[in-house]
Specification:
Spore Coat Polysaccharide Biosynthesis Protein SpsA, Chain A; 11 strands; about 20% strand
């Protein structure tokens, strides 16, 4: 089991205790690898406490290269199991989590699996958030109740994200590690390193399933229940979106960006303003759409630069 963490010593212990409480069948062994991604708080002391006191083997690994994908890749090198389960430092798992993951993969013959990520609200959410499945999905929540065998290109309600996913070691042997150009890096929440890995595995023919029986609980603090949080998230998500599918430049380019991206952002802005003036109930959704379009526009040159770097031999994701 693997957790990558960054500056969350205050809540990390709760996540670790959930992992260490796993109830597994006789003869099934497990270990926990915690990768400290250059934290500046008491993360190391928290992990060392469990190294001393836990009956389950716990390893602490420091990864100084900033970025969650660097940390995950370092953890993959340290982990010794044939099956590797991933969760996050702000996630709580049940004592049956690992056993359920193994059962889901065994009965379906899958090479990887994921499941529901439900909210653990620190404070009661506002109505505009509690009633919006779309906004909840932006909090890395996955609430689908229908099992699904994933296929490429991805479609349907089943999503597999890093807070609740498990893969056989053979998947990484074939498709390589996490792409270090993707994934949160310090204060820049550029996600999609997990989605990118799932897509690469599917393209290689691996079987990956979504099963709602596999459940974890994602801690959602008050700072993530503000409308500005979703606007900022949508803007920075533009980098990951552009990295994964760089929009075509077209014939007309302004300041290194396709002109049609300017038109799309302007159209999204006008729709948002119009809804705000008329006090439409979907105003917040349109605002998030605008910030996402603006993020894609803003990040386009950076995404193009990274794409060129990835095309170089040493930038092959299999080598990372």
């Amino acid at each position: 089991m693997l957790i990558a963490t960054y500056n969350r010593a205050a809540i990390l212990g709760e996540a670790i205790e959930g992992v260490l409480a796993q109830r597994l069948a006789p003869g099934v062994c497990c270990e926990l690898v915690v990768v400290d991604n250059n934290s500046h708080d008491d993360t190391k002391a928290v992990v060392e406490h469990y190294i001393r006191t836990s009956a389950v083997p716990v390893s602490y690994l420091f990864e100084g290269r900033q970025g969650k994908s660097h940390a995950l890749n370092a953890g993959l090198k340290r982990a010794e199991g044939d099956v590797i389960a991933f969760t996050d430092d702000d996630v709580l798992v049940s004592p049956e989590w690992a056993a359920t993951a193994l059962r889901v993969m065994d009965r379906s013959g899958a090479d990887g699996a994921g499941g529901r990520i439900l909210p653990k609200w620190v404070t009661p959410p506002p109505a505009w958030l509690a009633n919006s499945a779309r906004l909840r999905s932006y909090l890395a929540l996955v609430e689908g109740v229908t099992p699904q065998v994933l296929s490429y290109p991805l479609s349907g309600p089943g999503c597999i994200w890093g807070a609740n996913m498990v893969f056989r070691r053979s998947v990484f042997d074939e498709v390589g590690e996490f792409d270090v150009e993707l994934g949160p890096c310090g204060g820049l929440p550029v996600n999609s390193e997990d989605l990118d890995l799932v897509e690469r595995a599917l393209r290689r023919g691996f079987k990956i399933v979504y099963d709602p029986e596999l459940v974890v609980y994602h801690r959602v603090g008050a700072e993530r229940m503000r409308k500005m949080y979703f606007r900022r998230w949508a803007f920075t998500a533009g980098l990951a979106r552009t990295m994964r599918a760089l929009p075509p430049r077209g014939r007309h380019v302004v300041l290194g960006r396709p002109f049609w991206l300017y038109r799309r952002a302007a159209r999204a802005f006008s729709q948002w303003c119009g809804a705000a003036l008329l006090r439409r109930p979907h105003t917040l959704d349109l605002g998030v759409d605008f910030f996402h379009a603006a993020g894609i526009l803003w990040w386009y040159p950076e995404a193009a630069r990274r794409a060129r770097r990835r095309e170089e031999p040493e930038g092959d994701p299999r080598a990372r």
